[in-house]
Specification:
single chain, 293 residues, alpha/beta, Alpha-Beta Plaits, Rossmann fold, 2 domains, 11 strands, 22% strand
């Protein structure tokens, strides 16, 4: 059995549901039951005896464009672990692109970032290339960039603090940098941070990194490491937007694509495209009065 929960335009919800139900009658995922969850009146829950997530996801995309959703093989519940990407997921910016603007190189760096997020470039090579372009930039530019440019996405802190109030472990894991991520994690409420480290000498960036690279394999490894501490039966949720996030999205129970690039979106069994990050709380059936501001 598959269970799907989704939030879509309420004005056309009934007609779209009828169309999708009719379209799925003779497929591997016929709709056996559909009803609004009583707790908030926004979330539609679908149940099917089928097991093909890809077919159900395509049907939801076809009939409920611009939706927020989670598809699962068991009853959907609040996760024990939440691991999230930072740039363009928990915050609305790509930190390295914004930092590059202080060196007059934003367009050049952003073009490389976009290709890496689309999965067109090797992540480590693309990261080292971009960092090398920042050689000589004053470290103070990071402080200014944080203060002037970097902002959490709507609902980020409420999502993280509410999950924590339910006993969920929260981890921010990023292919970006601790210079940014440590501050962002404190703002939003994450309990652990994993990321890359910019090398600084004499108050300036050297154009190099310190230590190993946090990449897609690291993100998956962090997810698995945290789950191993929790024992059998722990439920995980991972959120991201780019190709670098795909392994952890695929390895989690609820892999969430947040306004994601096509490859990451295709790998996910959940997504947020219509609302802000608190849509995940609605999909997890956490009542608004229990959200932590």
């Amino acid at each position: 059995m598959l269970i799907a929960r989704l939030i879509a335009d309420p004005a056309t919800l009934e007609s779209r549901l009828e169309a999708m139900t009719a379209a799925l009658v003779d497929t591997s995922v016929p709709v056996a039951h559909a009803a609004m969850l009583d707790f908030c009146g926004e979330v539609l829950q679908l149940e099917t005896p089928g097991d093909d997530i890809a077919v159900l996801r395509e049907a939801i995309d076809t009939h409920f464009a611009e939706s927020d959703a989670i598809i699962a093989r068991d009853e959907i519940q609040v996760p024990h672990l939440f691991v999230s990407d930072m740039d363009s997921t928990m915050i609305g910016q790509e930190c390295i692109d914004e930092l590059a603007d202080f060196a007059g190189l934003k367009d050049k760096v952003a073009a490389i970032t976009e290709r890496a997020m689309q999965g067109e470039l090797d992540f480590e090579s693309a990261l080292r290339e971009r960092v090398s372009l920042l050689e000589g930039l004053e470290e103070d530019a990071i402080t200014r960039c944080l203060a002037e440019r970097i902002r959490p996405n709507d609902g980020a802190r409420v999502l993280v603090e509410t999950l924590k109030s339910r006993g969920c472990r929260t981890v921010l894991v990023t292919g970006g940098f601790h210079h940014f991520a440590d501050d962002v994690a404190q703002q939003i409420g994450f309990e652990r941070v994993v990321g890359n480290r910019l090398e600084v000498s004499g108050g300036k960036l050297t154009g190099a990194l310190v230590g190993g690279i946090t990449d897609s394999s690291t993100k998956q490894a962090v997810l698995e490491e945290e789950l191993a501490k929790m024992g059998d039966g722990a439920i995980s949720m991972a959120a991201g937007d780019g190709a670098n996030d795909i392994p952890m999205i695929e390895a989690s129970n609820y892999g969430i694509a947040y306004r994601a690039k096509p490859k990451a979106r295709a790998a996910a069994n959940g997504w947020v495209e219509r609302g802000d990050l608190t849509a995940l709380l609605k999909l997890l059936e956490i009542r608004r009065e229990d959200w932590v501001a």
